[in-house]
Design brief:
58% of the residues lie in helices and 0% in strands. It is built from seven helices and no strands. α2 packs antiparallel against α3 (42-59).
């Protein structure tokens, strides 16, 4: 489902994202102890999470941004070892799976925070070694 150049184009429209303020708040609470999202990497990592989420919200405006998406995006970012565009397309694929291939309706995402926040925390516990500071 990867479209060359689309992610870069979406990032240029970030300021038009309706949920940008909420994304900016939520990203600051997301896996802040992981080396890719803290210390000298904090600014770059947090900006990447913001860009990924805002780009998705622009790509799929009927869904936009829902609280809890930042944990999913950050987990994918960490697993991809900070590969931003790869994370974006993995996030798009995950959301398409959740919504159904042809659906652009928010109703399947109602309660996403309740459903996926515990999942994100469980993944963090299961894959502790990914989140450990290796310094």
């Amino acid at each position: 489902i990867r479209v060359n150049g689309l992610y870069d184009e979406l990032k240029t429209k970030k300021q038009s994202c309706r949920g940008l303020h909420t994304i900016k708040q939520d990203k600051l609470r997301t896996f802040t102890s992981h080396p890719l999202l803290s210390g000298e990497n904090r600014k770059r990592g947090m900006e990447a999470i913001e860009d990924i989420l805002a780009s998705y919200a622009i790509l799929n405006p009927k869904v936009g941004y829902c609280q809890g998406m930042s944990y999913l995006a950050a987990f994918l970012y960490i697993v991809s070892e900070g590969k931003e565009e790869e994370t974006f397309w993995a996030f798009v694929a995950l959301m398409q799976h959740q919504l159904g291939k042809d659906k652009l309706d928010i109703s399947p995402l109602e309660g996403m925070y309740v459903e996926y926040f515990p999942l994100a925390r469980l993944l963090q516990q299961m894959f502790d070694f990914i989140f450990e500071d290796k310094n």
